[in-house]
Amino acid sequence: MNEVLTPSAGEIAESQELLAAFEQNRKSGSAVFRFRGQRVDAPHCARARTLLERARLAVLL
User: Fold this and answer.
1) Could you count the other beta carbons within 10 Å of the beta carbon of residue 18?
2) Which residues lie closer than 8 Å to 40 by C-beta, 6 or more apart?
3) Quick check: 19 and 45 in contact, CB under 8 A?
4) pLDDT tens digits, residue range 15-49?
5) What share of the chain is helix, strand, coil (3-state, %, to 5)?
6) Where are the domains of the chain?
7) Would you say 58 and 49 are in contact if contact means Cβ atoms under 8 Å apart?
């Protein structure tokens, strides 16, 4: 897969952390939360899921 489209190890780790934080906040009833000082909501999580899917397809996960 093209290097431009292949997620870096840092991007993969950040996406995994973001989705874990999203799940934790969702369980407490909040769909919007702060992650690393930034407001995060569903579109951010969708991008993180897409990135992890690209990593899976590139056999990085």
Assistant:
1) 22
2) 18, 21, 22, 32, 33, 34
3) yes
4) 999 999 999 999 999 889 999 999 999 999 999 99
5) 55, 10, 35
6) 9-57
7) no
